[in-house]
Design a protein that fits this description.
The complex is a heterodimer of chains A (415) and B (516).
Chain A: H1 2-12, H2 27-37, H3 39-58, H4 66-91, H5 99-116, H6 121-144, H7 150-169, H8 179-186, H9 200-226, H10 234-256, H11 263-281, H12 283-293, H13 295-300, H14 305-331, H15 342-352, H16 364-383, H17 388-413
Helix pairs in contact in A: 2-3, 3-16, 4-10, 4-11, 4-14, 4-15, 4-16, 5-6, 5-7, 5-14, 6-7, 6-14, 8-14, 9-10, 11-12, 12-14, 15-16, 15-17, 16-17
Chain B: E1 4-15, E2 18-29, E3 33-37, H1 44-52, E4 61-66, E5 69-70, H2 76-81, E6 84-87, H3 99-103, E7 110-111, E8 114-115, H4 117-130, H5 146-159, E9 164-168, H6 176-191, E10 195-199, H7 203-209, E11 212-217, E12 220-226, H8 234-242, E13 266-274, E14 282-291, E15 296-300, H9 307-314, E16 321-322, E17 326-329, E18 332-334, H10 339-344, E19 347-350, H11 354-358, H12 365-370, E20 378-379, E21 382-383, H13 385-398, H14 415-428, E22 433-437, H15 445-460, E23 464-469, H16 472-478, E24 481-486, E25 489-495, H17 501-508, H18 512-515
Parallel strand pairs in B: 3-10, 3-11, 6-9, 9-10, 15-23, 15-24, 19-22, 22-23
Antiparallel strand pairs in B: 1-2, 1-4, 4-5, 7-8, 11-12, 13-14, 13-16, 13-17, 17-18, 20-21, 24-25
Organism (chain A): Streptomyces humidus
Pfam family, one (chain A): BPD_transp_2
Function (chain A): Part of the binding-protein-dependent transport system for D-xylose. Probably responsible for the translocation of the substrate across the membrane.
């Protein structure tokens, strides 16, 4: 295999091809080139788009009703939160099977605090996140510093946290939660301003996001020119901006014409932007890719692999706790059976979204796209009244197709 | 000698977008040892894959004649049935199975689906003897050395009634002693009527065992030379490989005048390292070396001499168990217990195994170069991507890394270009001392020269360079001073003027018997 690659490379990589060669090729050519290079990412984005269109047609337009879009976000938020953390874990070359149990455990803990002991909900919230961090840190310690494989540690964690939840809750379902906490799972941005047919704050937020994204893109492009680096040609850049604007505005209008943006969507948005930035631009994020891609090389490059691994699991614990709070708030009760098989959905989301079993590959956005593919499948099939039996079959097939496509695509390009 | 046993006529093999073989013709006579040589990426391995059916019939153009008839192999099994067996560069033995089990893997002596152990062991013993091994056939592969493993591979080939044996760089991972044994075995098999094709970089090997040599360059077969003829000198073969005469294999270099006053940039005192598993064994035994700014100091030694182990142990205790010794930088003692500390003190270690220890193959050139010194392009833990890209673009141009952009995954580059990325990465880290471990291993002659030039420039900038290599001409061409190591010990130190290949080799083999 490796000799193959070496044999081919001299011709595949022509020497010193500099300068702005891109402008001659035509816009379509450029778009196609870009698509081919980022097949995995765009492939899933396109698949998600097709899936939305398909279900939109099959459900006679029900899928994209404002009310349903709102629901879709609320239903999938906790899987998406978990998928972000799971993506980091998988990029680092590990796996975490304990997150489903940990969400249940934290939900239970929150219920015990607020319902049984009347602890103020913001305090409970912070305590819950700390519990998640401690649980993640404990597992991370065993994995990173003690050297037990993550599969084993988190499999044990899965059993332990599930058991502890049942002990804690004595097998009972506990609820309801204080109002403030319920808002986190079910709430929307408050109404404000003059009466229009739309939700004002949501519109405002949408425009703000759009402005921010466009500004960021323009700034990036300027900086690249400053450093006299190659930039995407102008027309392609404009096309990209238009596509971004269309997507942001569509979602904004859909949400604004129902009850506005769900609070959880805002939390989720912040997480995606934050973690996306960390993985791409922070030294910490780069080190995660480095240890997942080639651990010995990363060590010899001075990367503190143990510390990075430890932090990745600590982070997963915090996100699992957040997901646990959201689930509990949304159901308005903590149940010992909450979060069942969430870990598998989060793992599936990551792999659909482009992660690799051997680590080193994947993006936060990919995890979100993967999670949305599963979410749209779930929601669409629910609208069509497909039974859960067949839903599982179809979701399994989706995972196989996504990863199968990836493998096929890689083999074709010979890498 | 007899007529041809194998003829490959006008072979063309294309991969998507790349023509790996454009027109290769190869004729191998019955009973000879035929060498194939060429630069990396010339198409040698691809040619052998076509021959052995790894690339099946239909995926290439041209004809293959074996024993006078046209053959069309659909897979590697089909070629093995005809008696063509290929032994790859990376050994394909299962480490936890016994020698006997490995020899007959996929080809077991069995009755009704159950293994006939008596026959297996008898036959394995016989085959092991034939290749000169007296190990028990029930020994696990992992318990014998690399050299012996190579011989087991040959025993395995013999079990398949091999007529044409193909060896792809068989001595690349072996020390001189094991290499010698292997080459003798090839000559022995030749007497028994087995024809061999040997792919090799090492010209002295070719001279020793081969009857003829075919040179391949850029997917074309250039010429076939009779090795026994007096005109076929090493330089003659090299000029065939590179298509130009090789007058200047090393950059011109003015020898360094060591300033006697200043303390050495790096000094290692009485360094001892034990084997990570076998704690009784000293892999590095009381070694002291020093290197000054602007100086290139070589460490010569055969495989197992402890050179890499010394370097890795000093560099953040990355190998074995440290059992004594100190490191001094500019005359002051420093701690190098972790890689981060070593880097912090301005030490860089460029590994001999770039694929496993040097690069993240699935990541881009850009991110590989910046990894060790991310802080240099980051503010408060956040990487400035534009600055990072500018830095790596700079190295792509100055180091002449052949890739369209810095966003190419390094796994797709050739060996020479990968090595340039590793070097860029460590130069960007801005070290005072560079330890280069076999920096030109497995890369072609043209890229070697470029790397030598870079090393020379580094020294000229006042960096201290430790140059570890097995290739003596390279050390003699580049270094101001050369240490020799054998069996974990320092056995000699020579200024450039006093060193010759013979002198160095004597020291490199010196203490072996004594320490055992």
């Amino acid at each position: 295999m490796s000799t193959d690659v070496t044999d081919k490379s001299p011709a595949a990589a022509p020497p010193g091809k500099g300068g702005g060669s891109a402008s001659g090729g035509g816009l379509l050519q450029l778009v196609l080139d870009g698509l081919r290079r980022n097949m995995r990412q765009y492939g899933m984005l396109i698949a998600l788009g097709l899936l939305v269109i398909l279900f939109q047609v099959w459900t006679g337009g029900d899928l994209l009703l404002p009310r349903n879009v709102s629901n879709l976000v609320l239903q999938n938020s906790y899987i998406l939160i978990l998928a972000i953390g799971m993506m980091l874990v998988i990029i680092a070359g590990h796996i975490d099977l304990s997150v489903g149990s940990l969400t249940a455990f934290v939900g239970g803990f929150a219920a015990v605090l607020t319902v049984q002991h009347d602890v103020a909900w913001p305090v409970a919230l912070v305590l819950c996140l700390i519990v998640g961090a401690v649980a993640g840190a404990a597992q991370g310690f065993l994995i990173a510093y003690f050297g037990i494989p993550s599969f084993i540690v988190t499999l044990a964690g899965m059993l332990i946290f599930r058991g502890l939840t049942e002990i804690f809750l004595e097998g009972q379902t506990l609820g309801p939660f204080p109002d403030g906490m319920q808002k986190m799972g079910n709430g929307f941005l408050p109404e404000a301003g003059p009466h229009t047919n739309y939700h004002n704050l949501t519109l405002l937020l949408g425009f703000a996001v759009l402005a921010f994204v466009v500004l960021q893109e323009v700034r990036d492009r300027k900086r690249q020119q400053e450093f006299s680096l190659e930039v995407v040609p102008r027309n392609l850049f404009l096309l990209k901006l238009v596509a971004i604007a269309a997507a942001v505005l569509t979602v904004t209008m859909l949400l604004a014409s129902y009850r506005g943006a769900p609070i959880i969507l805002i939390i989720l948005g912040a997480l995606v932007v934050g973690y996306g930035y960390i993985m791409r631009n922070a030294v910490f994020g780069r080190h995660i890719y480095a240890i997942g891609g080639n651990l010995p090389a990363a060590k010899l490059s001075g990367v503190k692999d143990k510390k990075v691994t430890f932090l990745v699991f600590l982070n997963m614990g915090v996100l699992a706790a957040l997901a646990g709070l959201v689930v509990a708030a949304r159901l308005n009760a903590a149940s010992p059976k909450a979060g069942l098989s969430f870990e598998l959905e989060a793992i599936a989301s990551s792999f659909i979204g482009g992660a690799s079993m051997s680590g080193g590959v994947g993006t936060v956005l990919g995890a979100i796209i993967g999670g949305l593919v599963l979410g749209v499948l779930n929601n669409g099939m629910n609208l069509l009244s497909v039974g859960t039996d067949w839903q599982q079959v179809i979701k399994g097939a989706a995972l196989l197709i996504a990863v199968g496509f990836d493998v096929w695509n890689k083999r074709k390009s010979g890498s | 000698m007899a007529g041809p046993v194998l003829e490959m006529r006008s072979i063309v093999k294309t991969f998507p977008g790349v023509k790996a073989l454009s027109d290769v013709t190869l004729t191998v006579r019955q009973g000879e040892v035929h060498a194939i040589c060429g630069e990396n990426g010339a198409g040698k391995s691809t040619l052998m894959k076509v021959l052995s059916g790894v690339h099946p019939h239909g995926s290439y153009e041209g004809d293959i004649l074996f024993e006078g008839e046209v053959v069309q192999f659909k897979d590697i099994r089909a070629s093995e049935q005809r008696g063509i067996v290929i032994i790859h560069q990376e050994l394909a033995l299962s480490p936890y199975l016994s020698l006997a089990e490995n020899i007959f893997l996929g080809n077991e002596h069995a009755k009704g689906g159950f293994i006939d152990w008596r026959e297996t062991l008898r036959h394995a013993t016989e085959l092991l003897r034939r290749v000169g091994l007296d190990d028990h056939p029930e020994t696990r592969v992992t318990d014998i050395g690399v050299g012996k493993q190579q011989l087991v591979e040959i025993a395995k080939a013999l079990s398949k009634k091999v007529k044409l044996l193909i060896l792809d760089e068989p001595t690349a991972a072996l020390n001189d002693e094991d290499s010698g044994k292997l080459l003798d075995l090839i000559l022995e098999l030749k007497k028994q009527g087995i024809t061999s094709i040997i792919i090799s970089h090492k010209l002295n090997e070719i001279r020793k065992v081969a009857d003829s040599v075919t040179i391949i360059r850029d997917g074309h077969s250039i010429e076939t030379l009779d090795v026994k003829s007096a005109e076929t000198t090493e330089d003659r073969i090299i000029s065939g490989m590179v298509g130009r005469d090789l007058d200047h294999r090393f950059p011109e270099r003015t020898p360094h005048e060591a300033e006697k006053g200043a303390a050495p940039a790096l000094e290692i005192r009485d360094w001892t390292v034990h084997h990570p598993i076998d704690q009784q064994r000293k892999v590095v035994d009381d070694v002291s070396i020093q290197v000054r700014r602007g100086e290139i100091v070589g460490i010569a030694g055969l495989m197992g001499a402890g050179r890499t182990e010394l370097a890795m142990s000093v560099f953040g205790r990355s190998y074995g168990r440290h059992a004594g010794g100190t490191v001094l930088k500019d005359g002051k003692e420093i701690r190098t217990k972790t890689v981060a500390e070593a880097i912090g003190h301005g030490i860089a270690y460029v590994t001999e195994d770039r694929k496993h220890y040097g690069l993240n193959l699935i990541d881009t050139i850009n991110r590989n170069i910046s990894l060790t010194a991310l802080a240099k392009v980051a503010k408060r833990g956040v990487v400035d991507e534009q600055e990072e890209r500018q830095v790596s673009e700079g190295y792509r141009k100055s180091m002449n890394i052949k890739a369209p952009t810095v966003f190419e995954p390094v796994g797709k580059l050739s060996g020479g270009n990968q090595q340039k990325v590793v070097l860029s990465k460590w130069i960007f880290a801005g070290p005072d001392v560079l330890i280069l471990d076999e920096p030109t291993r497995g890369i072609d002659v043209g890229a070697k020269f470029e790397i030598y030039t870079v090393i020379d420039q580094l020294a000229a900038q006042g960096k201290a360079v430790v140059f570890i290599s097995s290739e003596l001409p390279e050390l003699l061409g580049m270094c101001d001073r050369i240490y020799t190591m054998a069996a974990g010990r320092l056995t000699g130190e020579f200024p450039r003027a006093e060193a010759t290949q013979e002198v160095l080799m004597r020291q490199m083999t010196k203490d072996k018997e004594v320490t055992r």
